[in-house]
Amino acid sequence: MTALTAMSGALRRRTVDATGSRRARFWVYGLLIAFLLGSAFPFYWSFLVASRDSSMLTEQIPPLLPGGNFLSNAARVFDSVPFWKSLGNSVIVAGTVTFTTVLFSTLAGFAFAKLRFRGRNTLFLIVVATLAVPTQLGIIPLYMAMSEFGWTGELQAVIVPNLVTAIGVFWMRQYTMQVVPYELIEAARVDGCSMIRVYWHVCLPAVRPAAAFLGMFTFMTSWNDFLWPLVVLNAENPTVQLALERLQSGFYIDYSLVLAGTTLATIPILIVFVVLGRQIVAGIMQGAVKG
Amino acid sequence: MTSSVDTDAGRAPSRAAPAPPPARPPRLTWRQRLSVADVKFSPYLYVAPFFIVFGVVGLFPLLYTAYLSLFERELLDFESTWVGFANYATLLGDAQFWNALVNTISIFLLSTVPQIIVAVAVAALLNTHLRAPTGWRVGVLLPYVASLVALGIIFANLFGPNYGLVNGVMEFLGFEPIDWQANRFASHVAIAVMVNWRWTGYNALIVLAAMKAIPKDVHEAAMIDGAGAMRRFFSVTLPLLRPTLIFVVVTSTIGGLQIFTEPKLFDAMPGSNNGGSSNQFQTITLYMYQTAFGNHDLGYASAIAWVLFLIIIVIALVNFLLTRRLASSGTEDGGR
């Protein structure tokens, strides 16, 4: 009897929810759309300014539709800074760092998750502890070391410190534990696979989704890195972010020029995002990784 | 690894490695030996790259920073003079350092607190039955693709004192325009807006993942008990999000206290490291950068770095404890 009244109570509650739901849905969608508009606006604004000339900024009510000057402003970006070179540099740096991070992280993740060796737990504890270490604060000795090697101004100075990250190792270990069964590893061992072949043929195919996400995440982080490249590279051999910063410095800021630069620099990442957005979202939600 | 000989074979059989011969078979072939070595040493080989890289570019520089902070050392100089804790003593009396510390914490609070509240709200919106849920999630993450430099440039323009869009809108609505760069608090708000804009959607997805993991029957039980949607949110959802919120707060602490790019690019005088004409939005990392690479004072900059390091560790711990308490006070039974 009591169960019955509880049931009817729940039912009543549900119908109340249903009648109020149209207004509720209106609010849910309305608020989300507002949030998305707010998210997209700065991108649109920078394209808007880049497609006109800076005089639009002085107008009382700025125009809200793009003009036709984007290509000429973009051309001026290429004249003002070595933009092609900076794009190439960023691709080299982010590409290399992504490759090594994924390789070393999957290897270490495999070892920590599935292999037994002395000191494993202690070593993994160290990895976890290093997650919280702000390595950015070590740039002074790092800079001294780089000038000792004569690497300042060279791309390897930006690549080498970022070959592998703690978050990568940590995340691949968690994922490998979940998806690679011990039976499969043992079967491969019985069949005479060496360890490295077990990694290559058993582990790597199984962790591919996580590795792909780690790769995208690393690429974006590296592409956007600013402080360390600013310290160790120079204006002749910049990454994209340094070229952008360079555009903005000067006595008079021509915003159509500068924002044409930011738009150009955002387009490649935006394309990656549009193509792989689903996987990135899935990766964030699965692993709750934060950089 | 001591291969288990007959003396302790009975005592610790469970800890044996994958392939240790219990009693040595007469002779191992060359291939078998290779295989044993493979099992024994491969794991170390696989984890080695991380430890080597971290040791060389992470741990060593941090320790060397501590060592360097005890010296007087110029950037292009090879001579360093031992000064003991003099750099730290100077730091304690350095008004610019305290100013930078207050700025950093102020920007950090302005960016973390609203960000987490909005992220939880957005996650709650995303957790309703939406059409095309993945599309909305991707949309929410959009700001994450903006690089910090692009972001800094765009927002410096939007918050520009003379022709900035934000002031234009405010004037249009009948408010007094604000000099977002000159006014100390306003500049902190503007920088916090940049941080929030980029990270709120990202954190909303993390919170959403945690919300999805809450079992349905907990909600149903609360519903049968007569709890409304609001009540269910505050008494069921929020307490169960505790571990995730701790994670989000601690990670934003570690990142937020090192904030550098946003204040550097927000400066009305591009290329400057001052953080505004009177350092009104100079953060500690920016001050460290200026000291090391603008003023070439490596010893003093190292002291700044090391103090910031300690502050980050302490605040991350405090956050951890505080969030644990705050998130548990929502429930009558203290969470468990």
UniProtKB/TrEMBL annotation, chain B:
It holds the Pfam family BPD_transp_1. Keywords: Cell membrane, Membrane, Transmembrane, Transmembrane helix, Transport. It is a multi-pass membrane protein. Residues 101-319 form the ABC transmembrane type-1 domain. CDD domains: TM_PBP2. It is found in: Cell membrane. The chain crosses the membrane at residues 44-70, 107-126, 138-160, 185-210, 240-260, 298-322. PANTHER family: ABC TRANSPORTER PERMEASE PROTEIN (PTHR30193), INNER MEMBRANE ABC TRANSPORTER PERMEASE PROTEIN YCJO (PTHR30193:SF37). This is Sugar ABC transporter permease. Belongs to the binding-protein-dependent transport system permease family. Residues 1-26 are annotated as: Disordered.
